[in-house]
Amino acid sequence: MQASLEMMGETEIPKMGLRTLVRRAERRHFMTMLALMAPSVIFVALLFVIPILLFLFRSVDNAEIPTLLPKTAVALDTWRDGEIPGEPVFAALASDLHALKGSPDAALLGRRLNFAVPGYRRLITRTVTSLPGTQMASAKETLAAIDKSWLDPVYWRTLKSQSGRITDFYLLSALDLQRGAGGIEKVSGEQAIFMSLYGRTLYTAFGVTALCLLIGYPVAAVMAAARPAVANWLLSLVLIPFWTSLLVRTTAWVVLLQTEGLVNKVLLQLGVISEPLKLMFNTAGVFIAMVHVLLPYMILPVYSVMKGISPVHLRAAASLGANPATVFRTVYLPLTIPGVAAGCTLVFVLSLGFYVTPALVGGPGDQMIGYFIAYFTNSAVNWGLASALGVFLLLLIGVIYLALGKLVGFDKLKVR
Amino acid sequence: MTRSFGDTILATGTRVGLRVFTGVVLAYLVLPILVVVPLSFTSGQLLVFPLPGLSLQWYADFFSNPLWTVALRNSVAIGLTTTALATTIGTMAALGLHNAKFRMKPLVMALLVTPLAAPVVIVAVAMFYFFATLNLVGTYAGVILAHTILALPFVVVTVSATLQSYDPNMTRAGASLGGSPIYVFRTITLPIIAPGIASGALFAFVTSFDEIVIALFVASPQQRTLPRQIFSGVSESISPTIMAAAVILLAVSLALMGVMELLRRRSERLTGGINKQR
């Protein structure tokens, strides 16, 4: 277009002038607006989207083994499971391991393989240190002499299944599954911890949501029915915890719930209990503190929907002879459903990602997915598993959000 | 006429019962938070009631112990830098989104607010992983950049909401009188949307000031913030100094909540009464 404009003679310009000028001005305006948006968009894409994607990729990333054991990975291609591999495979492994002698990568490899088979780290360390430098007559005999484990197909099966660039190992592990001789199978009792972790996370989120609804619904109804001046005061009281740092609230509960804490003291004084209750480091503590943190997220959306319900409908139903229970069930409750759905989605999704509150108030048996993501990052340094748990947590949230989230704005989601 | 279910048809007994229940629930919401206040003034060593006496010793400890003074200084510095960064680029983005028409607009908006929809622990771990490759873990820049990501959505949402009620004829009037776009923005648009920008800035500051999970992962002990110091205190041995720190955090949050309420009223006045503006 630029070219055709230039080809037209100068005399033609006035005819086209206005339209061109407007178009040019609009384009300039649009470019200015794009330039205004650019810093934020680049910022979020670079420092949020990319890190999240890179982290999630760790759940299938398997660069370590093919990089550290290149010859073995190739040699194992033709190996069939169930038998002990032949001399070429042993020779390839011996050569690969020999190259790792004295390098920190040997420890890295051992740690990585230990995720799959406990004891693999020791096997690698011992083999690397004991491997003779000179040419061996038979690599198979040399390795078997260092450790008999090399004659066990389990270790070779692990190597083979882990020798690709991409692995399903972490995702399967996070579902309590593994690749055995006969394909994908369940891991044995003690190691199977993740399905119960999802169960516990869902159970906690569901319980907290139900409690918030049971407690929050009547409170929102009373607030909606109150005179505006009173309602404003009540609203401020709901907003105070909403604005207070999550950590301050959790700290307060730690102080209140401990064995010598105020809650136990008051209950003892009142004679409700005869000896202190255990309220901390258990499920009760997690529920008490989490409901406290999340209750405003239930009350606020339910309240805003209730405020918009005209009392005329209720009076009409009552005047037609319906008793209060019927009016509630057939008129009021259906009208409040949008608020209830929004509040429940919000509270449920937020509880799924909780980490700080259960970590401080809960016991070892109350920790949710978020805690284990932090644990596998910090303490166990198992990025693959941390990432796989992240994948499933985001999937869970995504599914719930797609199912119910149309009722809630993204902007109201503040996850701690 | 805004009365609803309760007052319309319920029997008095049920109504009183509901009100008592509401009172109990609101007490459950507010009182536990306030419990840290008296405990921070205890003259004893233990966090127990009744207080053996009153004392300011824990505040004295707070303000003389470098563990806490550095944490407070870090929190304020990181909070203010995060606020400046998030408010600047967030306001720019909101202005751009508001004034441009294009098909991808909802997508851009969604992109800018997604950091709120992901659990913070995933964001923190992902940033820790990413920042480690850039040598940003354990640096002020790393913490500030991560906090800005979390604070940005609040600025974009708040300023966008304010722009909804901004009358574009004001800009046109300014331009028709010969003002350059920048001059018109500075003298007309900016003063009118200022309360919205200020609200966004407050949100940004509170987000950074109260944030704990990023501080645990991306910061090193050198960049310890107040929440991080409280967290490690609570998970090791809880002392009255932690109560003093919690009270300071609480006071800042509540003061900012008060300022926010004032801004909201002012903003309502400004945008609700355009004709009265001179």
Q: Helices, strands, pairings?
A:
The complex is a heterodimer of chains A (416) and B (278).
Chain A: H1 2-7, H2 13-57, H3 64-68, H4 70-75, H5 87-99, H6 105-116, H7 120-130, H8 139-146, H9 153-161, H10 169-173, E1 177-180, E2 183-186, H11 194-225, H12 228-243, H13 246-257, H14 262-269, H15 283-307, H16 311-319, H17 324-352, H18 356-361, H19 369-378, H20 383-404
Antiparallel strand pairs in A: 1-2
Helix pairs in contact in A: 6-7, 11-15, 11-17, 12-15, 13-15, 15-17, 16-17, 17-20, 19-20
Chain B: H1 5-9, H2 12-34, H3 36-40, H4 57-64, H5 66-99, H6 105-113, H7 120-133, H8 140-164, H9 168-176, H10 181-210, H11 213-217, H12 226-235, H13 240-272
Instruction: Kindly report the CATH topology of the largest domain in chain A.
Output: MetI-like fold
Classification by helices and strands of chain B: mainly alpha
Give a quick account of the main beta sheet of chain A: strands, pairing sense, barrel closure.
2 strands, antiparallel
Tell me, briefly, the overall form of chain B: globular
Instruction: Give the class of chain A from helix and strand content and strand pairing.
Output: mainly alpha
The helix-strand sequence of chain A is HHHHHHHHHHEEHHHHHHHHHH
Shape of chain A: extended
